[in-house]
Amino acid sequence: LQRDAKGQYLFDLLCHHLNLLEKDYFGIRFVDPDKQRHWLEFTKSVVKQMRAQPPFTMCFRVKFYPTDPAALKEEITRYLVFLQIKRDLYHGRLLCKTSDAALLAAYILQAEIGDYDPGKHPEGYSSKFQFFPKHSEKLERKIAEIHKSELSGQTPATSELNFLRKAQTLETYGVDPHPCKDVSGNAAFLAFTPFGFVVLQGNKRVHFIKWNEVTKMKFEGKTFYLYVSQKEEKKIVLTYFAPTPEACKHLWKCGIENQAFYKLEKSSQVRTVSSSNLFFKGSRFRYSGRVAKEVMESSAKIKREPPEIHRAGLVPSRSCPSITHGPRLSSVPRTRRRAVHISIMEGLESLRDSAHSTPVRSASHGDAFAGPGRSGRAESSERVAVIADESYSPADSVLPTPVAEHSLELMLLSRQANGAPCSIEEEKESEAGTPAAEAEGELRALCPGAGGLGPAQAQQVNKFLLSVLRLLLVTVGLLFVLLLLLIVLTESDLDTAFFRDIRQTPEFEQFHYQYFCPLRRWFACKLRAVVNLLIDT
């Protein structure tokens, strides 16, 4: 990958490899060394967006969830969205009732292993699969019952389509949670969905605001503001506090992109948005892609033979050590992986596939996921809910977007060697080096010269200098305008004591006769010449 290669080049390369045409719903996500998530911006250089040393770890994700996923034109697109929502279900991001959870899991089971066969599927076979962060025997029996009696004969494509139709009806469909706190200090999760802005607290949706009611979004430091205009000219300002300024900026950029994608009629209506009312202060951002309506119109024009889809076959899961859980399962549904390795020295090194399915829970590790005798922090991760009557805490998800694993192994090994307890956040960071992270479609790009001393500090210095430069230019511009206004007023017939005193000073008289009068005669002469030229023509 060339040093100046834009994000669009990398994304197009990946979509070409996946044989994907309806690509506007997807994006590439990465995590910086401070564990802050980012979406790769396609208009900027890939290398300049990275703060870590190469190789970089990136993930192919659904960025804009389709309003109606069942209406997608191509089966390959529906399959990729299906994989993403299956991952959301496993994370505990897709909240639902027990009955809905059982149905969704049964659809996954039917799509991956086909019809129920007593010879192949003994009693309790559904318990061998990991669909949610937390299982119960009652739920597993319900899943097996639906799979046996209601889904027989459905092809994988039909099961995936039914799965999408059901998932689309849930309140938390398309939720990508951003942890924040409200003005009272209560924990909350903000999210942008195809239908609007959502605020979740506990297991409840406390706010839902349609996109046409959102008038403005801005942020200052860690504070995020959402301006809402509802019926009867009722205006509301919702205020939330992000953990860091970087997290708040990421939240703001996600909001700007989602509002543009779902609300606007065409991409020509997209405007550059500032995070501040003063143009020389704050951040400026512009969504660079197509909007949902244009994507749907473009999809309708696709005419080609449906590409072949290599769905995953069932494979045994590989257990791996975990800091807080001990030996346990791979944390992700073992979906089909597309890993792209790109090297500047060797060109396109390889494009390879490997198929993985929903992880199998072996007898020896059947209870390892729960992990007896864990600390209170580990117990909090167990409360990640798929069922709506439990606590909603996607921040405790066992499978975040992985970060690059440089220096992590040494840090984690040293912590373990010293017997020091490690937090869930550290476990999240270590997930990049596990088979679980490998199974979720990571993308590594080896780029030269990406390093540098203190990139974060350099970025802050650049922002400060740019802000100072803007302030200086605005100040000079205002002084120039004020000077012109003063000259016009003093040369006018306005008769006030202030202007009379100025006109009587020797400096003003010298300026008036030596500079202003000759300049006025010169402009008048030029103006007459232009008028005469127009009259003659």
From TrEMBL:
GO (cellular component) term, any one: adherens junction
InterPro entries the record matches: Band_41_domain, FA, FERM/acyl-CoA-bd_prot_sf, FERM_2, FERM_central, FERM_CS, FERM_domain, FERM_N
Listed transmembrane segments: 464-490
Domain of life of the organism encoding this protein: Eukaryota
Pfam families given in the database record: FA, FERM_C, FERM_M, FERM_N
Protein name according to UniProt: FERM domain-containing protein 5
Region annotation (Disordered) ranges: 353-377
Keyword Cell wall biogenesis/degradation listed: no
GO BP annotation list: actomyosin structure organization
Keyword RNA-binding belongs to the record: no
Function: May be involved in regulation of cell migration. May regulate cell-matrix interactions via its interaction with ITGB5 and modifying ITGB5 cytoplasmic tail interactions such as with FERMT2 and TLN1. May regulate ROCK1 kinase activity possibly involved in regulation of actin stress fiber formation.
Entry keyword set: Cell junction, Membrane, Phosphoprotein, Transmembrane, Transmembrane helix
Protein's cellular compartments: Cell junction, Adherens junction
Every FERM domain range: 1-266
Coiled-coil blocks: none
